[in-house]
Design a protein that fits this description.
- The complex is a heterodimer.
- Chain A is mainly β.
- Helices cover 0% and strands 52% of the residues of chain A.
- Chain A contains no helices and 11 strands.
- Chain A has strands at 4-7, 10-13, 19-25, 31-38, 42-49, 56-57, 64-68, 74-78, 87-94, 102-103, 107-111.
- In chain A, strands 2, 4, 5, 6, 9, 10 and 11 form a 7-stranded mixed sheet that branches. A 4-stranded antiparallel sheet of chain A has the order 1-3-8-7, with no helix packed on it.
- In chain A, a hairpin with a 6-residue loop joins strand 5 and strand 6 (56-57).
- Chain B is built from no helices and 11 strands.
- Chain B has strands at 4-6, 11-14, 19-25, 30-38, 45-50, 54-58, 61-66, 71-76, 85-93, 100-102, 106-111.
- In chain B, strand 4 and strand 5 form a beta hairpin.
- The chains are: A mainly beta, B mainly beta.
- The A-B interface holds A 31, 33, 40-45, 48, 50, 58, 90, 97-98, 100-106 and B 8, 31-32, 34, 42-46, 49, 51, 88, 92, 98-100, 102-105.
């Protein structure tokens, strides 16, 4: 059971570089989410997609863009990475309303 | 004021004792609540969710919801060292709509 798959698991970037974090789910879920987790800050929502074809900003969207490529895939792009974006990034998905979210294993991103 | 509040801990519990975790929320429109466990360096995993006032039991875990007082709690009976982790409380609904709002988490340490 793959569930939610994130790639890569680790990445080191230099300031100003760009990259895309990939997320795919095989549970036929409608909603997908991107979070970042920093020490002492808990999980903060960056962007989410309630259904295929829609995306909305979360709590901390600045510096990020997203694409809901299809029902399975939801990518997060950093156009010009900054040290403040060093964090652990989690993708999650959910099926029906009132159902729990399922998380991927995370991407640990360091920006020098 | 955060919408979902948790004591960051650490909550130190002797092995075999009951660990009691509390979570308060400010949005009265929140309808569902979720408890996730997160081991260090890992992704959050769902323990329980609760929609209705009262208690819900699953094995050694009991979730309690009191909508009038706006608090959610998690009891862990017969605590084991493997229960040592950070526990995240999350609310769904209300002003946040289709998104989960997470508390900062409570770190639990179970000492043999």
């Amino acid at each position: 059971n793959a569930g939610v798959t994130q790639t890569p698991k680790f990445q080191v970037l230099k300031t100003g570089q760009s990259m895309t974090l990939q997320c795919a789910q095989d549970m036929n879920h409608n909603s997908m989410y991107w979070y970042r987790q920093d020490p002492g800050m808990g999980l903060r929502l960056i962007y989410y997609s309630a259904s295929e074809g829609t995306t909305d900003k979360g709590e901390v969207p600045n510096g990020y863009n997203v694409s809901r490529l299809n029902k399975r895939e939801f990518s997060l792009r950093l156009e010009s990475a900054a040290p403040s974006q060093t964090s652990v990034y989690f993708c999650a998905s959910r099926g029906q309303p009132n159902q729990p979210q399922h998380f991927g294993d995370g991407t640990r991103l360091s920006i020098l | 004021q955060k919408e979902v509040e948790q004591n960051s801990g650490p909550l130190s519990v002797p092995e075999g004792a009951i660990a009691s975790l509390n979570c308060t929320y400010s949005d009265r429109g929140s309808q569902s609540f979720f408890w996730y466990r997160q081991y260090s360096g890992k992704s959050p995993e769902l323990i329980m969710f609760i929609y209705s006032n009262g208690d819900k039991e699953d094995g050694r875990f009991t979730a309690q919801l009191n909508k009038a007082s706006q608090y959610v709690s998690l009891l862990i009976r017969d605590s084991q060292p493997s229960d040592s982790a950070t526990y995240l409380c999350a609310g769904l609904g209300g002003a946040a709509g289709n998104k989960l709002t997470f508390g900062g988490g409570t770190r639990v340490l179970v000492k043999p």
